[in-house]
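Bumping my old thread because nobody answered last time. Still need a sequence for this structure:
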């Protein structure tokens, strides 16, 4: 059973080379109907990678009517993002990870999808 579950998860993920890294998408969908995905940007000159939401999570939340700038929502958003070890680019409304070594990227991508994109 474990192997079948692992295959089901793997079959729901696709990885494509894009300029500057990898596009990772899944069969999970955003509220607007687009597949949920993240980008693995890298490697940089030091061989490090960064995961990035591509700026779709927070604009979707804002377009749904949530005021992410109210003190309560800002605190909640900050708690969610930092608890996942992520960072917020407030200007671009993008969520991204710290710089990662290549072997850390796969597990971090899974956490990004299931912990952080799920609104945990």
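Sorry it took so long. Here it is:
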């Amino acid at each position: 059973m474990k192997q079948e579950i692992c295959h089901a998860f793997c079959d729901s993920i696709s990885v494509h080379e894009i300029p500057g890294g990898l596009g990772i998408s899944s069969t999970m969908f955003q509220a607007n109907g687009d597949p949920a995905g993240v980008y693995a940007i890298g490697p940089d000159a030091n061989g490090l990678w960064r995961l990035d939401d591509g700026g779709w999570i927070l604009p979707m939340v804002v377009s749904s009517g949530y005021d992410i700038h109210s003190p309560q929502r800002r605190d909640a958003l900050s708690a969610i993002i930092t608890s996942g070890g992520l960072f917020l680019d407030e200007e671009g409304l993008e969520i991204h990870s710290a710089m990662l070594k290549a072997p850390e990227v796969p597990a971090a991508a899974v956490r990004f999808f299931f912990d952080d994109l799920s609104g945990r």
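The chain has a mean pLDDT of 83. Let me know if any region looks off to you.
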